[in-house]
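Regression report. Comparing outputs from two consecutive submissions.

Submission 1:
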Amino acid sequence: QVQLVESGGGLVQPGGSLRLSCAASGSIFSIYAMGWYRQAPGKQRELVARIITGGITNYADSVKGRFTISRDDAKNTAYLQMNSLKPEDTAVYYCNLYQNWVDYWGQGTQVTVSS
């Protein structure tokens, strides 16, 4: 129906940067929102950033000023630019697409911030 493929994760040192990509394909009619969530070991999944139609964005307080979400509508792709990374950002990051009252999820990409 809808497929989401994340890429761009990896191992970086504190203070470094990563750019995550989420490519959507399949039965895409009208995207209401795309976003990024993350889940660290032993913790619940949490919202990192979200962008809805019209360009309105929401960020977790812990990433404000460091992360930027964007979207290329022509490519059905969302991005998460992550700067000034901290060890506490370590988690599996999941892409989310919300359309027609249905949530779709990618498989996740690992982000590890460590020296």
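Submission 2:
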Amino acid sequence: QVQLVESGGGLVQAGGSLRLSCAASGGINSIKTMGWYRQTPGKQRELVATFTSRGTTNYADSVKGRFTLSRDNAKNTVYLQMNSLKPEDTAVYYCNMEIRVSGWGDYWGQGTQVTVSS
């Protein structure tokens, strides 16, 4: 069974930094896309940053220049370095990956809370 385990969330002051990690396990053959989404109560989950199937990166306009996506393919792990954090970044952050086991599937982490105070 594929599992995505997230870590790195917490409480920081505006202007601070945080790094999120997400590691996948469970008989993985390959990974096509990897990235991060976030969600606040009453709102739909929105894209923050992703690696595409071509290995390029996509960032939401609101985080460009502040957040940086990286990965360690050997460890099936994706990271999100978040700098210059703003209160508007407060949300539950979810890791997402397209993973092939027997076939391709879309998987989500459990979510990690990021809170940025003024």
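Expected: both submissions complete independently.
Actual: both completed, but the second showed a warning that disappeared on reload.
Relevant detail on submission 2: The two ends are 41 Å apart (CA to CA).
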